[in-house]
Design goal:
Radius of gyration: 40 Å
Largest sheet: 4 strands, antiparallel
Strand order of the largest sheet: 5-32-31-30
């Protein structure tokens, strides 16, 4: 029997069973064995049996006794390590450090209430592009004497208008391609056109700094909007309120009250020519692309910039809003980029149209078309960025090769006709090839293996 070790003031003694055999193993934890022999008291005779009997300590007594012991060296080191690990966990993200390491290739599922099972996680897959029929040239309309710089389709889909470097605005029948009307009044190239869906008005702007409102019932100019300090390069109409937006080489876009001709806001922030402006009913209501290689989203009520997208490396000459999804695209010689409203979150790049891109068009079938300064058209699947067709229309006879260029394009209201304004002084109309099928024109899609770019 080892010698008891006196400890507390209440007379409790502790016995260390390892004290004799393991005098050098000081790192082992102490163990509380029991109490002392019954003390002598009046009327109690100490015998050999009673002297040898021990009193068992309660659990609380054992705990108090252990806490009173001097900690061993190993226990001190262990506590230090535990404290430092706790500090690291507090500093460096507890969920990542505490959770057991799990394979990202396995996912935890619970088929029942009492069981969990590991199943292989599906590898992330690129979405497959939708099949779109190829487009073919349907009609060539000539009549202008200069580069055709802009066009617009009226909301009833009956006719469309074109503006040209010959300073004339021409109205054409969409079904037959026949010329219906010529409007003169600009003294320089006409660069922007828009037809109102709310009034019988046509709006035009040009390099003569003029912004005009034409009444199509009288075919006369009824309003002028004065204020731009340099050539106007584009305009757009707000879909729900009577507001007109124009952009200019003076690095600003202006918001006009259609009725009073007052300039409500001057959108200042770009450091170079504002090449394109688009408007929508949802926030942010105004979108501009500029030669300073930025795209800006504007708060129309405040007249201030909400976000500036600086991802492009070269001039942004065209922006386009998706007709149904809350998304938009911007075009630059480095890339066509797809974005998400309302904050302008980058989604993906459309890579491959390596030229100056003057214009974009987008329809409800998720077909995006980009028109290049060298006369090329690229057709893209909006969802995946797959370039399913590249096209270069033949030039008008008598034109020189260097005059190939697509300046503006738009789909008609049905999305089944594509109209392009070109440098060979013609307007070309394209339609889908009715005879094409997935067998005759299969999808030749090779997605990039590398991670999708983040900017």
């Amino acid at each position: 029997m080892p010698k008891p070790i006196p400890h507390a003031a209440n007379g409790t003694t502790l016995t260390d069973p390892f004290h004799i055999e393991h005098q050098h193993d000081v790192d082992l934890p102490a163990e509380v064995q029991g109490g002392y022999a019954y003390p002598s008291a009046p009327g109690v005779q100490l015998t050999a049996d009673t002297a040898a009997a021990t009193h068992a300590l309660s659990e609380q007594g054992k705990l108090q006794a252990l806490q009173g012991l001097a900690p061993s060296q190993a226990r001190v080191e262990q506590n230090k390590m535990a404290a430092s690990i706790y500090d690291i966990q507090q500093q460096a993200g507890l969920p990542e450090r505490v959770a057991p390491p799990t394979s990202k290739a396995l996912a935890l599922v619970q088929p029942g209430h009492d069981k969990t099972a590991l199943v292989p996680r599906k590898a992330p897959t690129m979405p497959k592009p939708d099949w779109h029929p190829p487009w073919k040239l349907f009609r060539v309309i000539s009549g202008h004497w200069g580069w055709v710089r802009c066009l617009a389709v009226e909301p009833g889909n009956q006719w469309f208008v074109t503006g040209s470097a010959d300073r004339v605005i021409k109205v054409w029948d969409l079904a037959s391609g026949q010329l219906k009307l010529s409007l003169t009044g600009h003294v320089s190239t006409v660069r922007g056109l828009a037809v109102s869906s709310r009034q019988p008005y046509l709006f035009s702007c040009g390099e003569d700094k003029q912004v005009k409102c034409w009444d199509l019932e009288y075919n006369k100019v009824i309003r002028h909007y004065h204020g731009h300090l340099s050539a106007c390069y584009g305009l757009d109409l707000h879909p729900t309120i009577d507001v007109l937006l124009t952009c200019s080489r003076d690095s600003t876009a202006r918001v006009w009250d259609m009725r009073t001709k007052a300039c409500v806001h001057t959108l200042v922030g770009h450091s170079s020519t504002v090449a394109d402006v688009k408007c929508q009913a949802a926030e942010p209501q105004v979108l501009t692309g500029s030669h300073d290689s930025t795209v800006r989203l504007w708060d129309l009520a405040a007249g201030k910039s909400k976000a500036t997208l600086t991802n492009h490396k070269k001039s942004v000459r065209a922006v386009q809003i998706h007709p149904t999804l809350h998304m938009f695209a911007s075009a630059s010689p480095d890339n066509i980029k797809q974005w998400k409203f309302p904050d302008g979150n980058f989604i993906q790049n459309f890579t491959g149209h390596n030229t100056i891109i003057n214009c974009l068009a987008l329809n409800n079938d998720n077909v995006l078309v980009s028109g290049g300064d060298n006369g090329t058209l690229h057709f893209w699947d909006w969802k995946t960025g797959y370039n399913f067709q590249r096209f270069q229309a033949p030039l008008q006879p008598g034109s020189i090769d260097s005059e190939a260029g697509v300046f503006a394009m738009t789909f008609d209201m049905s999305g089944s006709r594509l109209l392009t304004a070109e440098a060979d002084k013609t307007v070309k109309i394209y339609k889908e090839d009715d005879e094409a099928s997935e067998e005759t024109h299969p999808i030749n899609w090779k997605p990039e293996i590398i991670k999708r770019r983040r900017y």
